[in-house]
Amino acid sequence: MFKKRLYRELSHFMTLSDNARKMLYSTTIYNATYPLLGLFTNTFILRQSNGFAQIAFYYVGQFISLPIFFYLNGLLLKYIPIKKLYVFGLTSLGLSTTLLFYLPGLSPLLLFNLGFVFSIPNSFYWANRHFITISSTLDNNRDYYVAMEAVIFTITGLIFPSLYGLILHYGLEGNLYSVGFAYKFLIILATFFFSTGGLIFSKSKIPNPKMEKVFIGRCSKKWWRQRIIETIHGFKNGVEFFLPTIIITSIIGGREGTVGAMQSVVAMFSAGFIYVLGRKIKVKQRPKLLLASIFSLIIMSGAFAISPTLLPSIIYVLGLSVTSTLIWQSLNPIIYKVIDTEEDSNPTNNYAYIVDRELFLNVGRIIGTVIFLLLIKYLKEDSALGIIVLLSSLPMLITYKIAKKLNQV
Asked: What is the torsion angle, in degrees rounded to the nearest 10, for the CA atoms of residue 198, residue 347, residue 360 and residue 409?
């Protein structure tokens, strides 16, 4: 029984194109390694700073940099194969973060500049990953593909954050090495893994797109609705880059070991559920999944805002990982479908829509982060956290209304 089921699932996986499968292999390496750059970079910044503001400055730098270099990537695609740009972005991710761990002090301006620099290879990675995903999948298998991305994310999230957290925790507890040495070693390890992921995809055979334009110019009403979705979703997504780590370290009271362990618990319960959804969900059911995810997020956010204490904090952090993954899983196929159905959309123009999407996503991220900075400046930290949690979740109901219409196109 088990063998038959396993064979059936493998057969279904093999229906994806060769490029799509290689992208998923490369994505596995990326997701296994990214906690070293995201989760523990956040914790490192919090260790070195006196408040929450500095970590926000780091991400504002990233959010400004991303659309700029998405655009530059589009210009380079006229001269450099997409495969090489993708591999460059992936293999450079670890190196771009190394500076953070070698500097004696971290001022807001310095963190902003470091975030800006870090996003240069991140832009090349994500810009080309989005384009390759669109060109390697179809609307009828994108739910499955996005679900596979989510499953990979959750399974790697089950193993690797906990593993990295244990390395840091027990090494420091046993005085085997200093904090600085531990972070530097893990970044070297991350660079090695990212390079391995780049090597895997470098063997794929993908034609280079012929770029006609990198900006959209005039667009349809349908795409303007999509821009609203991206801005609102960006508001929520932007604060999620650092909010869970702040809650864990300030309210729950843990450090690297606790952060990693909690992420792993979430991943254990969500991986199977997400995979089943990806296999069974129909195109017309995407908005229902989105609505259920948003309502769950709002309930958890409300509980945390009313009482930002231990139990609501644990529930929020654990639930945020699941609901955010489900929101991406339901929104992304809708967005890709809109790109496919735009009147001037074709393999040479799709990239312009990817750049435009990234621009409005990061506008939302910057707005959310700036509002967070203002809240922590004028309010108590607990009050600021509760308000930003609600502000980032409630507007997502608007994205449901718009996405439901777009999914019917």
From this structure: -130
